[in-house]
Amino acid sequence: MSLFAKNVFLLFVLMLVSVSNVFGSGLFPETHVTITNNLTGHLDLAFHCKSGDNDLGTQVLRYNETFLWKFRPNLLKTTLFFCAFKWKNSQQTGMKQYAKSGVVGKFSKLDQITMYLFANNVFFLFVLMLASMSNVFGSDFFAQTHVTITNNLTGHLDLTFHCKSGDDDLGAQVLRYNETFMWKFRPNLLKTTLFFCSFEWKNSPKVWFDIYKTNRDEAVCEEWCCWKIQQTGPCMTFLDNHHDCYKWNKH
Question: Which of 10, 70, 91, 237 is deepest in the core (most CB within 10 A)?
């Protein structure tokens, strides 16, 4: 787990560096808006700007003077500043200024480039994450599970069985004594993978067993789950020759 924690921390640092490379020194860059008095007749300009969160108060600019403020647009792209303007012998007029329109329209192409770079960096981080997890969990992060069924019936009887999961149907199979059938699959990430099988042999009723259940078998047999089928029930076998035997499912 310590190795996993180190890899997660490394990914977090890489993500911060990557996002910083996209957005510059500020992780969430500020937008700057300027208003310059360009009235004919060199008149004074009075204005009052607000947003849902900020009130910039009443400002007065002499001819050619500039007022600047800065803010961080919200992630939903709904930031709105609206202003009232007035000068000598004029009626008050209102203007709505979106954070990324009008004067700030120059940001539109930059915004597209930024989003493109951000997408590339996210993809790069995803690849790094998979590589890191591969280092943690082994060369094959999404390893396949192998299940084997061996006919170990006394009396050397033939074994007929049929295994299914929610996604796969392996069809009816017949094994002679000591023959083995094998299949492989990738358990789902939700750990709900289930293969269930029916078994029958000469003069026997049909019996059932859940031959693979992720929550039961993943930690026990890992990538190889090997079963020997006997009349009394299936037995999972291990390399050290010990085995765990189960009873048939109750109907």
Answer: 237
Q: What is the pLDDT of residues 175-199, one digit of tens each?
A: 999 999 999 999 988 889 999 999 9
Q: Is residue 115 part of a domain?
A: no
Residue where one domain finishes, among candidates 83, 110, 137: 110
Q: pLDDT tens digit string along 8-17? A: 556 665 665 5
Tell me, yes or no, whether 81 and 157 share the same domain. Answer: no
Residues in the chain: 251
**Pair 97, 183 in one domain:** no
Residues of the chain with pLDDT under 70: 1-28, 75, 91-142, 251
Q: Is 23 a domain residue? A: no
Report the CATH number at residue 177.
Answer: 2.60.40
Residue 47 CA to residue 210 CA, distance in Å, equals: 76
Q: Is 18 among the domain residues? A: no
Q: What pLDDT score was predicted for residue 90?
A: 79
Give the range of the structural domain holding residue 193, as residue numbers without chain letter: 145-245
Structural domain contains residue 73 = yes
